[in-house]
Amino acid sequence: MSTLNDATTPGEPCSYPSTPGEFAARWNGWSEERRAWWLAERTKTAEVATSCFAQDHHGQLESLRYLERRGPAIDVKHLTRQREWSEAVFGPGSRAAGVVDHIRKELTEIEEDPADLAEWVDVVILALDGAWRAGHSPEAIIGAIKAKQARNEGRTWPDWRTADPERAIEHVR
Asked: Is the model's pTM score more than 0.70?
């Protein structure tokens, strides 16, 4: 098994690597037997982890997918923590214009690199920030996300194969 590029300093022992570089450093320090064992264990819990970790550095994403299967990644506790942090760092109040301005900047960054997951996540976090700043509770935000998804699933949509890939696909009205 090959070593991984872009290794940094490994994290603390028994801690989860927080960056791809930390994971690569840990991986590169393991014996072939340890790597084989680790890959076999991940195969049991996440069907695609083997190829991702061994081949293309997308293991962090696969680990997150594994964790999502264990329970919701964004729940009331998470939204409460995010709100407390945001309020402490950016202050209280609506800040709607500032949040929208920041979302516009993130959208420009997405247009420059549509594959950059971090920029998409920035938009999600900012949207959640805007929702609580508009007075909505974590429970209401989660409920609205689920309700909107259900509503979208119940709508009629045009065939995506005939749609312009550079334009939004909107439901049939």
From this structure: no
* Rounded Cα distance, 29 and 19, in Å: 16
State the DSSP code for 72.
-
C-beta of residue 107 within 8 angstroms of C-beta of residue 83 = no
* 22-35 pLDDT tens trace: 777 777 888 888 87
Token pair belonging to 160 = 């995506």
**How many other CB atoms sit within 10 Å of the CB of residue 166?**
5
DSSP assignment, residue 14? Answer: T
* Chain mean position to CA 110: 14
Q: How far apart are CA 116 and CA 101, in angstroms?
A: 20
- 115-126 pLDDT, tens digit per residue, is 999 999 999 999
